Amino acid sequence: MRPLLALLVCCAPLAACESQRGYVPYVPGPGFTQRMEISLELPDSAPVAVGAWVTMHANRESGPWVLRDSTMKNDPPCEEISPIIKDEAAGKVEWRVEPEGQVNFSTPGPTDRQIKFLQPGRYRVWAVSDGCGAEFKSNEVDVLVQ
Q1: ∠ CA 97-141-136, rounded to 5°
Q2: Domain residues for 140?
Q3: Fewer CB within 10 Å, N- or C-terminus of the chain?
Q4: Domain tally, the chain
Q5: What are the φ and ψ backbone dihedral angles of 121, each rounded to 5 degrees?
Q6: CA separation (Å) from 18 to 25, 54, 78, 83?
Q7: Residue 144 β-bridge partners
Q8: CB atoms within 10 A of CB 56
Q9: Is residue 11 part of a domain?
Q10: Whole-structure pTM over 0.90, yes or no?
Q11: Does residue 54 fall inside a structural domain?
Q12: What one-character-per-residue DSSP string does 99-140 give?
């Protein structure tokens, strides 16, 4: 009897949220925006040394999100079951560097990302992420490597 009761307690909230698709999705609300800000943990005063690992950060934000309802006439550009409003996303985005081919990346943890520059020079680093309806780009960071 207890397993059945536990199943009913767990499933009751899910049944309340069901729609024709099996859930009520969140969609972009009025004034919806998405942005991403990246930063690199660079030395305070000296250029980055060739071969040194540099930790990278990417913070994404999006919103506002609203529950989809039957009065909405147009299909939204995206739907989410449980949208993330703000998150550390360094390990989830695509990193880009100019000039290309002179860096290595490592992933020390599930959300961490590091970059190592293999040659001296000036580099530009940014990230892109899949977004609601279209890919979007972060700010750019210039790095001097010696």
Answers
A1: 70
A2: 34-61+85-145
A3: N
A4: 1
A5: 150, -175
A6: 10, 46, 18, 17
A7: 122
A8: 21
A9: no
A10: no
A11: yes
A12: STTSEEEE-SSSS-EEEEE-SSEEEEEEEEE--SSS-EE---
Q: Kindly state whether residue 99 falls inside one of the protein's structural domains.
A: yes
Q: Are residues 108 and 93 in contact, defined by beta-carbon separation less than 8 angstroms? A: no
- Residue pair 32/134 in contact by the 8 Å Cβ criterion: no
Residue 74 makes CB contacts below 8 A (sequence gap 6+) with none
Question: Cα dist. 146→2, 51, 102, 117, 143 in Å?
Answer: 67, 10, 13, 9, 10
Q: Which residues contact 20 (CB under 8 A, 6 or more apart)?
A: none
Q: What is the pLDDT along the chain (146 residues), one digit of tens a residue?
A: 555 444 444 444 444 444 455 678 999 999 999 999 999 999 887 899 999 999 999 999 999 999 988 777 788 889 888 887 788 899 989 999 999 999 999 987 777 899 999 999 999 999 999 989 889 999 999 999 99
Antiparallel, parallel or unpaired: β 86-88 and 53-67: antiparallel
Beta bridge partners of 53: 116
CATH code of the domain covering residue 115: 2.60.40.1080
